[in-house]
Amino acid sequence: MTPSDLPRPIHKIHERSPRSFQEASVRKYQELAGKNFYRDENCSQILDFLFIGNIETAYNEHLLCKLNIESIVDISNMEPHQIPRHRKSDCPCTCALETSHPRARLWLGVGESRNTDMLPYFEDISTFIEAARRKDKNVLVHSLEGDSRATCAIIQYMMKYHDMTLRCAFNLVKKRWPTVNMSASFQHSLEMWERKLLPGVQASMTFEEMSRQNAWN
Ligand SMILES: [Zn+2]
Q1: How many angstroms separate the alpha carbon of residue 97 from the centre of ligand 1?
Q2: What is its EC number (predicted)?
């Protein structure tokens, strides 16, 4: 086994200078933002192996097969029988594989109240996604609409495992998936996550500052 075969180590942000970390994060954003990734009205590719989507994507067998999704993080809070009929696709998988595709799933019941803190779920979500990446599996993270819980889940993963600040991770997801619409408590969870990952380093952004800027523009 050569060094390049070994799993990529979890970065240790605090061992790098804040400035070099922030500059590397911006470079990473620019590199990723320029990629010509998959996108449709229900799903968007964020990284080589990582997709965000809504409930339609999660039940579209044809698309899951086409995108080679083998791991799913389900934060829809819905059992299959609870999903409205009109939101389930009638697109069966038509590939040559005769058995149904096995897929690893992480199901998380994340409350939908305005005060729900997503921080307690971040470790489980990012560990699951990263384990799939290390096995070369493509991952879909979905919630009901994909604009709040799934968005928050993907941003925190990129902060932890892809050397991105909150600002860069948020901007990247927003560029690829413009319907981003997170509650104030989820925004707060992400700000706390950055503090935890980058102790003692000035926050890369606050959502309050961003909404003030947007109000002026
Ligand atoms: Zn198939």
Answers
A1: 6
A2: 3.1.3.48
Q: How many A from CA of 89 to the centre of ligand 1?
A: 15
Could you please report the per-residue DSSP string of 97-129? --SPPP-EEEE-----STT---HHHHHHHHHHH
End-to-end CA distance of the chain: 53
pLDDT > 70? residue 134: yes
pLDDT, tens only, 50-89: 999 999 999 999 999 999 999 999 999 888 888 888 888 7
Kindly give, in sequence order, each residue whose CB lies less than 8 Å from that of residue 134, ignoring residues fewer than 6 positions away: 7, 8
Q: How far is the CA of 138 from the centre of ligand 1 (A)?
A: 14
DSSP state letters, 20-56: HHHHHHHHHHHHHHTS---EETTEEEEETTEEEE-HH
Domains and CATH numbers, the chain: 25-216 (3.90.190.10)
Please give the distance, rounded to the nearest whole angstrom, from the Cα atom of residue 178 to the centre of ligand 1.
Answer: 29
pLDDT tens readout for residues 199-212: 888 899 999 988 88
Cα–ligand 1 centroid distance for 86 (angstroms) = 22
DSSP assignment of 155-187, as one string? HHHHHHHS---HHHHHHHHHHH-TT----HHHH
Cα 65 to ligand 1 centroid, rounded to whole Å: 4
